[in-house]
Amino acid sequence: MSIRPFQFAGATAVVTGAAGGMGEHLARGLAERGSTLLIVDRDAQRLGAVAASIRATYPGGRVTTFVADLADRDAVDRLAAELLAATDRVDLLVNNAGVALAGHFDQIRLDDFDWVMAINFSAPVRLTHHLLPRMGAGGHIVNVSSLFGLVGPKGQTAYSSSKFALRGFTEALRNELLPRGIGTTTVHPGGIRTDIARNARIGGNLTDVDVERAKDDFDKLLTFPAEKAAELMLEAVKSRRPRLLIGLSAKVPDVVARLAPMSFGTLERSGTRLLRLAGKARR
């Protein structure tokens, strides 16, 4: 079953993680296309600044902000209630917010593992469940997975678990919603230039200096422009693409995982080699 292209003008869009990175650029792109925005983030100050900038750039647009910590299950449910009170329909839901956690499984705390799963997986599931009744035919849901929702490198047990789970959830959801005229897109970004490295938690008994060095090294590998990634995502929504891979660092491992799944072990020995593929390709 095919669905007509998504109509952004006049649509009501919910975007999480909108205070920076891809989320901010998604919000700006949606405003430019004439959508009403309901944007979410835990950083009230930065979210307010993004909303003010969008209002100044697009005076006729409507932007409403919602502050919530998606790691808190009760806060997610309250957020959903606030969103439902603010609109009688949801045309586009973009579950973009995400966090990272680095460290071998026996180094990280289970509380940190649960924190990643709550934000990256449970929050999108709960928001989708609450908001789906307000979404009719022609609607669309975007869930942002990751390169590590395609392959699982060492040191990424929590992050990969959350992103593989989100991928599976979205693929199953697609089969349920397509007959109702609602589209879904799973997004697998590679090394996108955002603050995810700076905000990551790192497990293990590392000194502050080691933690900062690890974050700096990871941050250098995030080279794909967030604004370009956001544009690709919006084009995928418009054309109802079920799956979007962004950057060579996502596309190459996807081919490897499909053709020779076990061979990824050679790449896995270096936790950053996949991201370096993208960095070298753009130099």
In terms of topology, how is this protein built?
Elements: E1 12-16, H1 21-32, E2 36-41, H2 44-57, E3 63-67, H3 73-86, E4 92-95, E5 101-102, H4 110-131, E6 140-144, H5 157-177, E7 183-189, E8 201-202, H6 208-219, H7 226-239, E9 243-246, H8 248-259, H9 264-268, H10 273-281
Parallel strand pairs: 1-2, 1-4, 2-3, 4-6, 5-8, 6-7, 7-9
Helix pairs in contact: 1-7, 3-4, 4-5, 8-10
Describe this structure in words.
This protein is α/β, with parallel strands linked by helices. Helices cover 48% and strands 14% of the residues. The chain contains ten helices and nine strands. The strands form two sheets. It has a seven-stranded parallel sheet with strand order 3-2-1-4-6-7-9, with helices on both faces. It has a two-stranded parallel sheet with strand order 5-8. Strand 6 (140-144), helix 5 and strand 7 form a beta-alpha-beta unit. The longest helix has 22 residues, at 110-131. It is globular and about 50 Å long. The N and C termini lie far apart (41 Å). The model is unreliable at 266-283 (pLDDT under 50).
